[in-house]
Every structure is written in structure tokens, then in C-alpha cells.
Amino acid sequence: CGSGYHSVGSSSLDSTNENEIPKYRVVLLGESGVGKTALVSQFMTSEYMNTYDASLDDEFGERTVSVLLDGQESEMVFIDHPASEMSVENSLSTYEPHACIVVYSITARSTFQTAEDILNYLWKEDCIKDKSVIVVGNKADLARSRVISQNEGKGLAVAKDCKFIETSSGIQHNVDELLVGILKQIRLRESLEKK
Ligand code: GDP
């Protein structure tokens, strides 16, 4: 599922050497306007954040943070591409992400439909087997405009063997939990693969 990161060639991209800080790529997928950019911005303010490499560039929609969790440091690169610019397929083959976050807004059914289409694609291409995929229902603060219940969101994630969380980047609800959840999923998968 996917092949070749655009700057592969540097071994520091991989997490095989014990002395190096592992670096993980996380692609954000979902319709425009669901809050992907806002979520990544909120990650920057997380209490788990160690350092934020400000030199890394908005030009490619990439942001790198160093996260300290359970006494271990990891670098996480968040890649946020508007769907119109890059199809899911393209995005996966270009970046070879360790994890994907599929985001919808709990206030807009069309965004949930898009999330379902993306998950169907990931499932069909066997991507869910080899990377961590997390379904995120964002804008949970907008309770009165809610059209997707938590159960419906959870149901979609469970059907596709993915984790699920509702967040609000607006009021910082579950944003840390999402950040830590992604990293834990990636580490768990990596430790299972090493066995
Ligand atoms: P993207 O296109 O998926 O990157 O979406 P953005 O991060 O640009 O967000 C689109 C709009 O939704 C902006 O006006 C944000 O302020 C707003 N937004 C994002 N997350 C939330 C949230 O959790 N709650 C509320 N109320 N608004 C949000």
C-alpha cells in the first residue's frame, strides 16, 4: 500500500536505529473545512510537545513536532493536504505514512460520507492492515448542530477495524488524547512487527 516518500534516501527517516529519534509520518485525510489544519495547530500546544521544528515548512503542508511520551521521544510529521490538490491514493504513495487520520465534522453529513469513502478505499487497498488508521469526528463543541451521533461515528470505525475519537479543536477537547493515541497506535504496531 503506497511506495516511496519524496525524500527517502536519508536513513534518519526510519526508526530502525535504536539511537535515533524515530520519525513518523501522519497524513490527515478528509473533506476541506472539517478542521484538519486546526487540529494540527492544536497539537503544537500539547503538553506532550517537546519541541516544535518551526523550520519545517508550511509550503508542503507539513509540520513536525517532537513528542515526549512514556519517557521516549518521537518526531511526528503531520501532512495536511487539501483533498482537491492530492487524491488519497497519491497522498499515500507519496508519503508512505505510518498512520492516517480520517477526519469528518459531526455537523455535516457530506463530510461523514467522504470519510466513509476514504475508509472504503483504504480497506479495499489493504492499507488498514499495514498502518494505523484513526477516525476522528471533529467539531464536537457544536452540539446543537450535530447530525452524526457518536454511535454512528464509532460504528463506521469499528466496521473498518479503526480507532475512533471525537474531538474539538475549538475547545481543545480530546486533542491531546488524539495526539497520544496516534503515537501509541504507531508504537504498538511497530512493536508487534518486530516480533
Ligand atoms: P480544514 O480545511 O480541514 O483544514 O479545516 P480548517 O482547520 O481550516 O477549519 C475550517 C473551519 O472550521 C475554520 O473556520 C475553523 O475555525 C473551524 N473549526 C475547526 N475545528 C473546529 C472545532 O472543533 N469546532 C468549531 N466550532 N470550529 C472548528
**Strand composition percent:** 15-25%
Number of helices: 6
Instruction: List the bound ligands.
Output: guanosine-5'-diphosphate
Catalogue the unreliable spans: 7-12
Family: Belongs to the small GTPase superfamily. RGK family.
Protein name: GTP-binding protein GEM-like
Report on this model:
Helices cover 34% and strands 24% of the residues. The longest helix is centred in the last third of the chain and has 20 residues. A seven-stranded mixed beta sheet has the order 2-3-4-1-5-6-7, sandwiched between helices. The two termini are 21 Å apart. It contains six helices and seven strands. It has 195 residues and is an alpha/beta fold. The structure holds guanosine-5'-diphosphate. The site of guanosine-5'-diphosphate has 14 residues, from helix 1. Guanosine-5'-diphosphate binds next to helix 1.
Brief summary:
This protein is an alpha/beta fold and 195 residues long. Helices cover 34% and strands 24% of the residues.
Spell out the key features of this protein.
195 residues; alpha/beta; 7-stranded mixed sheet; 6 helices; 7 strands; globular; binds guanosine-5'-diphosphate; GTP-binding protein GEM-like
